[in-house]
Batch of 2 targets.
Target 1
Amino acid sequence: MKPMSWGEHITSKVEGHVLVVTIDKPPFNHVSVDLMSDLAFCLEAGDKEVRIRASVIQADGKAFCAGADFASPTDAVGSGMAGINALYTQAVRLFSIEKPIVAAVQGAAVGAGLGLAMVADFRVASPEARFAANFVKLAFHPGFGLTHTLPRAIGEHRANLMFLTGRRVKAEDALGWGLVDEVAPADELRAAALRLADEIAENAPLAVVATRKTLRGDLAAAVKEQTDHEHIQQTALRATDDFKEGVKAVAERRAGNFQGR
């Protein structure tokens, strides 16, 4: 595969047997239906290309992905629940990818951005990386299948801690929790992620895909079932006064003045 663009904000290149995919949607790499669809098309093409044995997902800018932009009325995800439902359709596509994925995480991986990081089999982070499921700070319910994928990765107790506090977890702590597999200096992050992908790619490709399929089981189907449930809960909470206050409070970087209605 030659270097390619996939829509407006996704580019890819091949290094050896690894597909290196870059997200570039400044300034915060917010998720959108189109962005996730383009990313899925790119990775699906990698699945069909015999030369490709693993992928790296990386992002330009200070943030890996700052989640959904609820403050933007022009964004499909920010403007209503239909956009979020469409986003989750793309999430299921991403979890259906057959070949291993390594994420190189710098800066924030927040909300749906954390959900995107969980698409990967492994995560390499810079010391500046921060991971947060901050949905309750928005008076919202977790989404992007995180209520399934996060406990699966770090255990129910730690996942509950992240969900119910909305706290940001530093890269060093995330390493101890198993949320991150390696911490590398910012200027070495992408090289470290590529090394891990190369370590996977040097093995027999059919055996790697078969083993991964066994280990992941029905993960994509489980994410589909979980996002259906998450969407129901999010739809109810989005209609509340607390949600309006939560979006405003997060945008203003202050604690929400919630009233429970």
Note: The chain has eleven helices and ten strands.
Target 2
Amino acid sequence: MTIEAAYAPPRSPPFDWQLLAGLVVVALAVLPALLSLFWTPYGNAAFATLAEPDATHWLGTDAAGRDVLSSLMSAALASLLLAGFATLVCLLIGAPIGAFIALRYEGEVPSVPTLSLPAAALAFALVVSGLGAPGNLTVILAIVLPGLPAAVQLVVAAVRPLWRLDFVTSARLAGLSSFSTAQRHVVPRLLPQLVAIAFELLAAALLIEVTLAFAGLGTLPPGTSLGLLLRDGQQFLTIRPLLVIVPGVVTVAAALALLVVAARCRNGAR
């Protein structure tokens, strides 16, 4: 090694363009949805039915004469709120359980593939809806019941490597309590991974919510959802394809962007 190399300043890490792209796509889905709390272009006002996109109605109107952009903003908000609430429940319950298992037990925890959750959720939704539960409750239970084991497994996988680091073991051997060790050395390094887990679970929850609403097992009229927009627009697919394409693209793009952000957060935490 040359003298110049030995005293060269450390290189800054390369800019993460994938993370930026994922966050931009997530923002493009979330910000208009939040804006719908205060303003939409036309609300529920009725116009000519199935109108073509123009300067007034950028995405046209639906079969009820409602502005598609206004409906899309409100539907995205409803889907994100349901998916976000269910994800929060999974984390609030699953994270403490996962941390306890990681610190107290050495056995392997069965892996639950996150992208397999929609299939499991559909089965739970069929059972829950058959018991006469309301649509929103059906969605929340269908996300939480299979999502909770996934959250526990992901937290266990995140905590165990941190708990086995050399300086963490040294702190424990030096007499520092498990709580103080976790607070000082584990939690700060765990937070980025918890963010990654939250984004990953939210992506699965969003797909579940849209799927159940499309299948008639989730949100029902007069409520709104991206899944309902897909279901209502499919009968007009040949004459007004935007009624299906736009909510479908929003759903898929948002879910993929959340998964990209989760992957980049997890890689950055290592």
Note: The chain is about 70% helix and 0% strand.
